């Protein structure tokens, strides 16, 4: 692997880590309702899954294993977007702006993982 490819790999590792971390920070700003409590638990799991499975993909034992992990990353990023849409943010514009940014990041990661899958076939 060239140095450029290696640095890209770790840039995406950092990006997925920040994805999970930013979701956790966002959750702290949500109102305390029963639905937000349950949705927040799912948000933590799915956003963390993106980062964890990307690390696992980088340590894959085979090409098939790598592609499988990247597919899980893509699914978890999509799931994170769903839970993000479901959280209740009544009339709090600043929090809603953060939700929009996080949602955009989940979409960008889904596209990036999709491109990695296509290039790896």
From TrEMBL:
The family database entries (InterPro entries) matched by this protein are listed as: 23S_rRNA-intervening_sequence, 23S_rRNA_IVS_sf
SUPFAM superfamilies in the cross-refs: IVS-encoded protein-like
PANTHER family noted in UniProt:
FOUR HELIX BUNDLE PROTEIN (PTHR38471:SF2)
Organism of origin is Candidatus Falkowbacteria bacterium CG10_big_fil_rev_8_21_14_0_10_39_11
Q: What is this protein called?
A: Four helix bundle protein
């Amino acid at each position: 692997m060239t140095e450029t490819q290696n640095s890209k790999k770790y840039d995406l590792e950092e990006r997925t880590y920040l994805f999970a971390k930013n979701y956790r920070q966002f959750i702290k700003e949500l109102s305390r309702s029963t639905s937000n409590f349950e949705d927040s638990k799912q948000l933590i799991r799915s956003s963390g899954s993106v980062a964890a499975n990307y690390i696992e993909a980088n340590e894959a034992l085979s090409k098939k294993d790598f592609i499988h992990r990247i597919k899980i990353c893509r699914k978890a990023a999509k799931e994170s977007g769903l839970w993000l849409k479901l959280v209740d943010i009544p009339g709090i514009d600043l929090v809603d702006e953060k939700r929009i940014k996080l949602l955009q990041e989940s979409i960008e990661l889904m596209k990036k993982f999709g491109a990695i899958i296509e290039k790896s076939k």
